[in-house]
Amino acid sequence: MNSYIIRRWFNKKIIYLLLGIIFLLSCADYFYYSQKIFPGIYVKDLDLGNKTLSEAEAILENLQLTFVGPEGESKSLSLTTLGIEPHIKEIIFQSYQKGREHIWPFSYLGRIRMKKGVNISLPHEIQHDQLRKSVDQLINNFNKEPEDAFFEIVDGTAVLNPGKTGFKVHKEKLVQEIIKTVEQKETPLIITVPGEEIPPIFTAEHLETMGLTHQMASFTTLFDTSYETRAHNIKLAASILNEHLIAPGGTFSFNHIIGDTTPAKGYKEALIIQGGDYTTGYGGGICQVSSTLYNAALLSNMQILKRHNHLFMAAYVSAGRDAAVSYGTYDLMFRNNRDHYILIVTHVENGEITIALVGHNMKEEIEINTRYLDYVEPPLQIKITSQLPPGEEEQLEGKPGGTLEVKRIVHQPDGEKREEVLSVDTYQPYPAVIRRGESHD
Fold it and tell me: What is the pLDDT of residues 393-431, one digit of tens each?
């Protein structure tokens, strides 16, 4: 056997071997994909390639349309929820038939072309009433009212919250966008919600034109939250003062803004000073609000027009720096002596009330100096009571009295200093009491 015959025999063997391998691979491919969709088949952006018919059906039953709002907020709803019923069996049939248009194994050429991806249409029916109802509910997720810029107190300091732009969905455009998205083959099931932005009425720029750019000063006092009615009155009065504007040269009156503290306005009974002693009355606690505001006004260098001290020294603020109010009699009044607006900002939380005045950044520094002209120790009273065991004592702390002079010292950036006597206040001492158990001897 010469070399030529050997080469022919060997080449035939190689050809037969290759044909055998191709045949075996083709058979394996045929049986592997006999119940599967060929690779490269897409419905919208969903890959059905290599999926069995039952797997593809499960995917199609959960088709969802994703809606993206103006701030990236998204919400997904199933097509059935939207009133869109896909013809699932028809879609699966079309997907399965892709690449099988010719008999095996002549369908391979078409499958090679499918590697770049083939999109299957999404036949469906639309229940238009259901679609519109679903769109109405969807709109509630994306319609946003604009939020005006405002100052809020964070960690005791008034800071600017720039507010937010609102958004209004265009309903009819959204309905048409849903229909178009479902009908188009290659459009993914994602929709940017059509609509228009709604600017706030007051922006940071608006506030700036009014001169409201920085905190001028703030003041914080503490209260006991266990006295629930008093805490309630403090929160209520502070909420009324919050965001109150005082025009340049304008006068602020506490009683004019707060008014009479009646139960009809939501005020409750709490401890007050009346007739030279402590008792209860509607609106108890609002003097702490007025005193906190008074100190913020002092530190903002406002012109004080009216202010009264209490009969007894207050527990929540230093003597000489309280401001008693009583509708129709005692009022706290001050004037905005600046050429820009002043904004009152309040915050009440966790037993603290903070009040800030907002305007231009202050250049001057304020110092408050208090000096006793006379000091009176609280008198001592002994009360015998049967509420304590014989011989046992309980002491209730009193309050000193006296006369104080309060000055405001204004330090200008150029070193100039100006002093102003704010008040000379006289307080009555409140007696300390020793309660002693009654003896039965």
Answer: 666 788 899 999 999 999 999 989 999 999 999 999 988
Question: Can you give the residue range of the structural domain that contains 351?
Answer: 210-362
Predicted confidence (pLDDT) per residue in 138-176, tens digit: 999 999 999 999 999 999 999 999 999 999 999 999 999
Distance CA 280, CA 261 (A): 13
Q: In the block, which residue shows the tokens 């110092």? A: 367
DSSP state, 115? G
Residue 24 lies in a domain: yes
* End-of-domain residue from the set 157, 192, 227: 192
In a domain, 203, yes or no: no
Structural domains counted in the chain? 4
DSSP of 12-39, one letter per residue?
HHHHHHHHHHHHHHHHHHHHHTTTBPPT
Same domain? For 309 and 419 the reply is no
Inside any domain, residue 263:
yes
Count of C-beta atoms within a 10 Å radius of residue 80: 16
Q: Identify whether residues 187 and 50 lie together within a single domain.
A: yes
Give, as one character, the DSSP assignment of residue 99: T
pTM over 0.90: no
**pLDDT, tens digit (0-9, with 9 covering 90-100), for 39-53:** 888 888 788 878 888
List all residues 6 or more positions away from 285 whose beta carbon is below 8 Å from its beta carbon. 223, 227, 229, 230, 231, 232, 233, 234, 237, 270, 271
Q: What is the pLDDT of residue 165?
A: 93
Q: Are strands 64-68 and 190-192 parallel, antiparallel or unpaired?
A: parallel
CA dist 355 and 157 (Å) reads 9
Q: Are residues 188 and 44 both part of a single domain? A: yes
In a domain, 167, yes or no: yes
